[in-house]
Amino acid sequence: MSISPTIAVIIPCYKVREHILAVISGIGAEVSKIYVVDDCCPDGSGNYVSENCHDKRVIILRHEVNQGVGGAVMTGYQAGIKDGIDILVKVDGDGQMDPELIPRFIAPIAAGEADYTKGNRFFDLEEIRAMPKMRLFGNAVLSFMTKLSSGYWDLFDPTNGFTAIHKDAARHLPFNKISRRYFFETDMLFRLNTLRAVVIDIPMDAKYGDEVSNLKISKVVGEFFTKHVRNFTKRIFYNYYLRDMSVASLELPAGLLMLLFGVTFGSSHWIASIETGAPTPAGTIMLSAIPIIVGIQFILAFLAYDISSVPRRVLHNKLR
Question: What average pLDDT does the structure give for the chain?
Answer without folding.
Answer: 89
